[in-house]
Amino acid sequence: MFKGLVGLVTGGASGLGRATVEQLLKQGGRVVICDLPSSPGQETAKQLKENVAFVPVDVTSEKDVKNALQTTIDKFGRLDVVVNCAGIATASRVYNFKKDQPFDLKSFQKTIEVNLIGTFNVIRLSAGLIGKNAPDADGQRGVIVNTASVAAFDGQIGQAAYSASKAGVVGMTLPIARDLAKQGIRVVTIAPGLFRTPMMEQLPEPAIKSLEATVPFPPRLGHPQEFALLVQSIIQNPMLNGETIRLDGSLRMQP
Ligand SMILES: NC(=O)C1=CN([C@@H]2O[C@H](COP(=O)(O)OP(=O)(O)OC[C@H]3O[C@@H](n4cnc5c(N)ncnc54)[C@H](O)[C@@H]3O)[C@@H](O)[C@H]2O)C=CC1
Ligand SMILES: C[C@]12CCC(=O)C=C1CC[C@@H]1[C@@H]2C(=O)C[C@@]2(C)[C@H]1CC[C@]2(O)C(=O)C=O
Predict the structure, then answer these.
(1) Predicted complex ipTM
(2) Which residue is catalytic, options 2, 54, 108, 162?
């Protein structure tokens, strides 16, 4: 089923996105990696060699996303699967009483712009292209997978912006799945817990260790490949639609 499938993965140069790119290629798919020009996307595509292309993209830009979709068509002729992994993590309390300073509004706006609006921008522009595919025997034309976070449900201190952006992704999953149902395009969101990626590795190792200890089972950070395996299952299972799946070892984040 994956042979010849064409996927577009945002944030595909790093972490969960990169693992997804590798998994799709391993299964016989072809992939367009979309990531910032400053990301290691070009080197990643070179390392992975065949059936892969890198397009520099800021997911918040209509022009960049349209250019990536055009490259997908020029290079691979179609688009079957979009996986939205691009995202940023920011942290700040709503009011810093020590510095007598409110949350920086620009930082709040940027987090929403990339994580929520960027995800929506990619979905809205790619849906038309996926909708051009001939339907399979089940009427399916393609699949869109988004990445939220468990912070959408149990946001911690300092995560107002990040949690709001990810809750927005969870909130739009069902209505967009309904919008696209007639065209046979499924939309599913994954809400990861704690995964060992460059985003997580911004934290000092002792902080990572103490976070790991809060995961009931398995008591460790997730491997990016475990995220990629869920993306694969979502693509394979036509009954999954309009839902957000937690992938978190039963973690419930503490305040
Ligand atoms: N690592 C974790 O434990 C968790 C991660 N997540 C989410 O998973 C997604 C992937 O995160 P990781 O792989 O951990 O992070 P990462 O930092 O390794 O990868 C994120 C990628 O997104 C790209 N990116 C950032 N802004 C972009 C933009 N405007 N346009 C295009 N690309 C952009 C970055 O260049 C980077 O390559 C993010 O949405 C993150 O919020 C959610 C829950 C837990
Ligand atoms: C943004 C955080 C917290 C503050 C900091 O010093 C460094 C960070 C980088 C890693 C982030 C931190 C955070 O707020 C929670 C997340 C975003 C973490 C990576 C995964 C994370 O735990 C998450 O998304 C959980 O759902």
Answers:
(1) 0.95
(2) 162
